Protein 1
Amino acid sequence: MKLLVPVKRVVDYNVKVRVKADNTGVETANVKMSMNPFDEIAVEEAVRLKEKGVATEIIAVSAGPAAAQEQIRTALAMGADRGILVEHDGVLEPIAVAKILKAIVEKEGPALVILGKQAIDDDMNATGQMLAALLGWPQGTFASKVEVSGEEALVTREVDGGLETVRLALPAIVTADLRLNEPRYASLPNIMKARKKPIEVVKPADLGVDPAPRLSVLRVEEPAKRQAGAKVGSVQELVAKLRNEAKVI
Ligand code: AMP
């Protein structure tokens, strides 16, 4: 059973994001970039399925600039077998990524595609769902547990009211939530081994996909600065302030 794991290159979650001076987007020049954290969880889940003997091959795919090879290498160092870079320098919206992934799915024939639930840069939370719709495959989104047996996957989903378990007929789409697992750190020997694993480079046009954006970003702004708070000395003072100043009680 083949597994496909899409990994996105995003601004590292520790970076304090700065808006560009011309308000067209956020600053990415000289900024630390990493694999989207939910994609690390997706790679970990795929590697665990391979270690359990359920999966035989893991393919990591990233759509983005040439530098996204770094994120594919990270996936290879964690245990993926080979990579595919769909090289494109411009903006890629979820619908374009979903079309790219659909073309790769049709070529590679994976039984399961495990994506992150959302990318932390655009917070779209859309690519997995769009891919499921384009392929006509069942989907288990926000997964906190995945069990694969035979021709089906049992996926526990984190929903507002608690946990929901769905049974999916393979092939299927799963998107990883935070509690699915704790991703491993790649060991030095595995980082060295990953250098020798193959990465195929293609362009969206090779897959028959036009990645042109359909949305235009009008303006990107910092959130309004929060006003400083004040400490109160007693419950009475708090109640008085809520009643007389904030007028909320
Ligand atoms: P999004 O819908 O943009 O929030 O992204 C959800 C998931 O789709 C991510 O966690 C990745 O697994 C995958 N994904 C989104 N964009 C890309 C990309 N450019 N390359 C590879 N995978 C992507």
Note: The mean pLDDT is 96.
Protein 2
Amino acid sequence: MKITHTINEVKTCVREWKKAGLSIGLVPTMGYLHEGHASLIERARKENDKVIVSDFVNPIQFGPKEDLATYPRDFDADCKLCESLGADLIFNPEPAEMYSDTFHSYVGVNTLSEGLCGKSRPIHFNGVCTVVSKLFNISEADRAYFGQKDAQQLAIVRRMVRDLNYNIEIIGCPIIREEDGLAKSSRNTYLKADEREKATILHKALTKGEEMVRDGEKDAKAVISAVSDMISSEPLAKIDYVDIVDWNELQEVEKIEGPILMAVAVYIGSVRLIDNFIVE
Ligand code: AMP
């Protein structure tokens, strides 16, 4: 596996691979890789001749009061995991390699970025779309792999690709969980032992919400209050949002009819966790 830190090195590999007619799968990550990331890399490995994993904590998707400085990192462990999964190249640029002093171009998707996490993280998705656009152009990938764990991100990237005619297929992959149901996340390492135990409330409450929807409940408010009540019963939990939106435009719905996304963001202590389910 090739370890690269510069855009030019990646482009040189890509040029060779393209010349040989090989397909390329891209897995964009912020590193500190776990089984959730591994599931994306494994799928990319199965479906492409070459696999690129980007490992980059993207500064422009963090707000001024967010955890950019403390975001967990372990590049050596990431390299070992990627190698063991058969990735061909890991791309780990410095921020200055991606954003020069004279960087002024941003990509954004309106409307879909405004609700859910966009309410408390107003610049987040423009940062995501911008870095993902750069990675698509650098890697010239045929397919890119994203987790449903970040469902709003997945919907936004899909829309960006459709609206701006990117020549790439976006593959959404299921949420990988711990045995007790907590969605795997690099940020789970911030949780203290008691918080880690209580964090299972997100999945428990969403499971209850999903059961209600699958049993035919059509009133979004009823499902939202059942899920919110369950989360609020845990003293360590503080709700950022609990919402049901349609799975195309990400707009709030009153009546549950077509495909919907139910998503939550909850602080457990000071750690903000997200989770969701989709009913197609
Ligand atoms: P991150 O490193 O957190 O930016 O995540 C990189 C990619 O891995 C994103 O597409 C995430 O949605 C995906 N991902 C993160 N956690 C999980 C998980 N538990 N299950 C599936 N995919 C995940």
Note: The CA atoms of residues 34 and 138 lie 25 Å apart.
